[in-house]
Specification:
This protein is α/β, with parallel strands linked by helices and 253 residues long. The longest helix has 15 residues. A hairpin with a 3-residue loop joins strand 10 and strand 11. The chain has a seven-stranded parallel sheet with strand order 6-5-4-9-12-14-15, with helices on both faces. Strands 1-3-2 form a three-stranded antiparallel sheet. Helix content is 35%, strand content 25%. It is built from nine helices and 15 strands.
Length: 253
């Protein structure tokens, strides 16, 4: 097992059970405890785990929201597959909303050049990439920029969203569950996401399997507000069926 695979396994385990132990991981993965300690240090440096005595816990348990750079290097293959599947949902013409997020951001490199689209987004880095496409009209929502996510929020963004209606919104989320719907740690971002749902004829949620079953502070939509959830095959079929029963069509890629 390569270091990247081992670290991804450790992160999944930490998020699933809330804590990982150095000794248990070393025995499970058949490596030296020092190797596990180095893995935990690497994961802490990118902001997804916090070291504690004897092991580590995911940052979500501490109330932290990892910055964009930390989240962007996790589950990259899964996010790429999700983004590629999302391209198939783009209309031939019209307007779309793209929410700020590390999975939605991958649409920026995959946008087709054979159709005229208006793209509205609150993601600064995504708007910059999309502006280079001559066939796209890119509208960046104004407002306060959250340093943690590089997303624009607050009244200016909400005012702009209240005056538009698009064919499709691609949403990101920190958590999704049957019980709580779609949630995110920050109320300001939740308000923008709620406005995006209201501004779209169809809503497509892009979320890797680690987001499923996790709940955060601010709820921004119920599951039945989502038309399609695109996730990866790390989500088991039973859970996918439970989500589909609550509202959206679920596509595992």
């Amino acid at each position: 097992m390569y270091a990247e695979e081992r670290q991804e396994h450790i992160l999944r385990a930490a998020r699933a059970i809330g804590r990982v132990d150095v000794g248990e991981l070393a025995a499970e993965l058949d490596v030296a405890p020092e190797t596990i300690r180095k893995d935990l240090t690497a994961l802490e440096r990118v902001g997804v785990l916090r070291r504690v005595h004897g092991g580590a816990i995911p940052v979500e348990r501490l109330g932290f929201e990892p910055p964009v750079a930390a989240r962007d290097v996790v589950l990259t293959a899964e996010k790429e597959r999700i983004a590629k599947a999302a391209v198939a949902e783009l209309p031939d013409e019209g307007a779309v909303l793209i929410d700020a997020g590390t999975t939605t951001a991958r649409l920026g490199d995959l946008m087709p050049t054979d159709r005229e689209l208006t793209v509205v987004t609150n993601a600064l880095s995504l708007a910059g990439r999309l502006a280079a496409f001559p066939n796209l009209t890119v509208l960046l929502l104004g407002g306060r920029v959250r340093g943690r996510t590089l997303a624009s929020v607050d009244p200016w963004a909400l005012s702009a969203l209240s005056g538009i209606y698009v064919d499709l919104a691609f949403l990101a989320t920190n958590g999704v569950s049957v019980e709580r719907g779609l949630t995110t740690p920050d109320p300001a971002e939740a308000a923008v996401k709620t406005a995006m749902v209201a501004a779209a004829r169809r809503v497509v949620l892009l979320a890797d399997h680690t987001k499923v079953g996790r709940d955060h502070f601010a709820r921004f939509a119920e599951l039945d507000a989502v038309d399609l959830l695109i996730t990866d095959t790390g989500l088991d079929e039973r859970t996918a069926a439970e989500l589909a029963e609550a509202g959206p069509r679920v596509q595992r890629v």
